[in-house]
Amino acid sequence: MTAAGLTAIDLGLRGAASGVFLLIVLVALLRRATGQQALLGIAMCAGGIFYAIATAPSLPKTAWWWTLPILSAQPAVFWLWARAAFDDDFVLRRWHGALWLSIVAFGFAITLGWANWPALAGAGGRVLALATLVLALAAAVQTVKTWRADLVARRRRLRLAMLAINVVLIATVAVAGFAAIPVAVPGAPGSLPTAFGLFVVAMLAAIGLFSAPAMAVDDATAAIASGEAGRQARVADRAAGRVVVDPILLRRLDHLMTVERTYRQEGLAIGALAARLDVPEHRLRQAINEGLGYRNFNAFLNRYRTEDARLALSDATQREVPVLTIAMDAGFQSIGPFNRAFKAETGMTPTEFRREALSRPDSAELSQPRREIG
Length: 374
Known about the structure:
Number of domains: 3
Strand content: under 5%
Number of strands: 0
Order of helices and strands: HHHHHHHHHHHHHHHHH
Number of helices: 17
Oligomer: single chain
Helix content: 55-70%
CATH topology of the largest domain: Rhopdopsin 7-helix transmembrane proteins
Distance between the termini: 66 Å
């Protein structure tokens, strides 16, 4: 195929990817999505459009001085999106925005100084490439770190595939820039693989957004109700297209958590819990996610663990027991995760909760009832 034909395919893929990204942004805006993950997703899609246009073979070289600095900060946006997508407890901070602005400013300094100090600018470009590699690696680590605990099946499949492709794209561009390979230059003849990668990423993002989500039961208690009423509720759920979780499995899970207190087991993983229940791991994931509403296995365990700790901290007979001992007895492996989970659940630190609980005449009233499954 001639060079003109390859260029036409390149531009066609970039146009298609830009159109899909734009459609995703418009849908998100029409849905009035305001969550941090949605906003970062919009920023990623906007960056994808910008990247597809700015690196096209037909873009004038005179536009590079202002396009490259913005593109150089796109890996930071992607890293933040990965954090928000895979970590349900992630919260955007001001320093995240400062990091993005710093990369943009550094990129402008490099491009503006290229004519007068080419050697210094080249070194700065390699620093940016190295930063891109670090951010891509951080995004990959985030995926591996939280993948096992993720209970949302669609998120595990689609976002993992999309993240892998994004990491490959970013790492490829970064390595090329670090090694001064011409493919890193916008508009280079070797940009067709980049255009194809952008198109694949756009299609994966569209599938993740527009595919029909799995329908969860409206009420977890309906799925585990006994007798004729429970049977009729499950029939109605199936007729309406809702997911019906095995009520027997939920009762067995409830017994393990509330009676045997399996959550106290150190390093308990969902695979080990599935083995205890003698069910496939994917069925247990579905039961906890679609039957009980948890998106993360650690959040499911921490609900029981923090309640266990609340009862101990409210017990006057355990006034002298160290907080760390209570945390370890409840199943936490260190004080840091315990403090974060406890404050997220109660709004107070364990020490503050104990002080307030023991200052009241009847501390037992502070103990909230455990969430019932059946």
